[in-house]
Amino acid sequence: MELRHLKYFLAVAEELNFTKAAEKLFISQPPLSRQIAELEEEIQARLFIRNNKKVALTEAGKYFKNEVTALFQNLEHITVKTKKIAENVSGEFRIAYISSIYSAVISDLIKHLKEQFPYVNFKLFEVSTTKQISALEQGKIDLGIIRSPVKSPKIKSQLWFRDGFSVVYNKSLIQIKSEEDIPNLKGETFVFFNKDYAPHYHEVLLELCAFYGFDPQVVHESNNINSIVQLVKNGLGVSIVPSNIAKNNSDAGIGFIELKKVNLYTNVSLITSKEDDSEITKSAIAFLLSFKK
């Protein structure tokens, strides 16, 4: 069976007329009839009912038409994707990241990728961990940067770095100097990540507070790390954030104290589809793994 047999079959199946199908294919009718006969003989199934009045598909022919149509659609998709991979002339590469990953590294990543793949359109999305996993499973993003374990048979995960935690506070309102003073925050109001937005992260924050001997009075919640830091700056509470946020914040009015005594960390991981083996993905991951946190 050759590809032309399938093309000829589809033409007849769509027109249900050998003369019209032959015209569509720019061949004469006798060779078309011979090709269809050869196909039926090879698969040992009658695909068409032919008489002087009409041409109709048999039940086997209807099934064969659906499958061959899907086959050609998939072949077209494979051809287009292969061309894009080979030439890198077009297409999109979608990167999702959590808000607690500082923007400088993301900007550097895009610059790096644009130098290598100048005709690819790179798109950035700030998305929660849970939604990133769902989006990657559905093929809506190509690379994700998250902060929690991944349990999905469709996703491969690679540890980028382990991050500690730091208390962030307004220096003019809170008087603490070291980690030894953390238990004194017992009566303060806290600003946390929303539990529904980042459930794993929320639980870790509660564990941290318990380690220092108190239950936090969570008054304000946010889905964005920058909003949390801003709320702290505005005097609406204290919070606990990943330590890399402290390392990349230069606001003189905000103080950070790293929590070194507690053995709790958050893993920042890079996630991709298990089926993705593209050069763009490899380049992006290699760059991030070489980036000094």
Please render the helix and strand layout as text.
Blueprint lengths: L2 H13 L2 H8 L3 H15 L4 E3 L4 E3 L1 H29 L4 E6 L5 H14 L4 E6 L2 H9 L5 E4 L8 E9 L1 E6 L18 E5 L5 H13 L5 E6 L2 H9 L5 E4 H5 L6 E5 L7 E8 L5 H12 L3
Parallel strand pairs: 3-4, 3-5, 8-9
Antiparallel strand pairs: 1-2, 5-12, 6-12, 7-10, 7-11
Helix pairs in contact: 1-2, 1-3, 1-4, 5-10
Polypeptide structure, described:
The mean pLDDT is 88. Helix 1 (3-15) packs across helix 4 (59-87). This protein is 43% helix and 22% strand. The radius of gyration is 30 Å and the shape is elongated. With 293 residues, it is α/β, with parallel strands linked by helices. The strands form 4 sheets. Strands 4-3-5-12-6 form a 5-stranded mixed beta sheet, sandwiched between helices. Strands 10-7-11 form a 3-stranded antiparallel beta sheet. A two-stranded antiparallel ribbon has the order 1-2. Helix 5 links the parallel strand 3 (92-97) and strand 4 (121-126). The chain contains 10 helices and 12 strands. It has helices spanning 3-15, 18-25, 29-43, 59-87, 103-116, 129-137, 199-211, 225-233, 243-247, 279-290; strands at 48-50, 55-57, 92-97, 121-126, 143-146, 155-163, 165-170, 189-193, 217-222, 239-242, 254-258, 266-273.
